[in-house]
């Protein structure tokens, strides 16, 4: 079974470490990468794509130096290589208009305010990866024990 990629980006190392710790239960079947800037994420995504790797989920903070999370997620959403990549905005400082832009322009799949609940984040990632697998047309049976079974059943109907 090939591990799918999940990328987390936050310019604050302590926040990034907390996210990675919360996502630890998923490491048996997902490769989790971390970055500290939008530019670092875009470089990593190019590298992974050139190696034939797939990015199932991108979790981004909003307020970062350089590009904001909404700008990053918008850029990813218009890149055909990542059309099925699921996007989560995880932030404590987005304004109402930022949130609207994240939904309407960047096409985020989930929004979490800091502090987040670890179990809800893990559950959301599991659901989004399940959707990604079906959207990509991958053989889900390799991942079946890890997936959101409700999504699997709904997709098979």
Automatic annotation (TrEMBL):
InterPro entries: Bact_response_regulator, CheY-like_superfamily, Sig_transdc_resp-reg_receiver
4-aspartylphosphate modifications at: 61
Response regulatory domain segment(s): 5-129
Keywords carried by this UniProt record: Phosphoprotein
GO biological process: phosphorelay signal transduction system
SMART domains per UniProt: REC
Top-level taxon: Bacteria
Keyword field contains Phosphoprotein: yes
Protein name per the record: Response regulator
Highest classification ranks of the organism: Bacteria, Pseudomonadati, Pseudomonadota, Gammaproteobacteria, Vibrionales
């Amino acid at each position: 079974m090939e591990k799918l990629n999940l990328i987390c980006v936050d310019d604050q190392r302590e926040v990034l470490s907390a996210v990675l710790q919360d996502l630890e239960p998923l490491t048996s079947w997902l490769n989790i990468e971390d970055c500290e800037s939008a530019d670092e994420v875009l470089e990593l995504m190019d590298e992974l794509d050139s190696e034939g790797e797939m990015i199932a989920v991108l979790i981004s903070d909003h307020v970062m130096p350089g590009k904001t999370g909404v700008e990053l997620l918008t850029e990813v959403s218009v890149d055909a290589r990542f059309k099925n990549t699921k996007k989560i905005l995880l932030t404590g400082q987005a304004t109402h208009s930022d949130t609207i832009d994240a939904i309407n322009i960047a096409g985020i799949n989930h929004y979490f305010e800091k502090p987040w609940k670890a179990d809800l984040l893990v559950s959301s990632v599991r659901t989004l990866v399940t959707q990604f697998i079906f959207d990509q047309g991958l053989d889900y049976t390799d991942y079946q024990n890890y997936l959101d079974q409700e999504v699997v059943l709904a997709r098979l109907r």
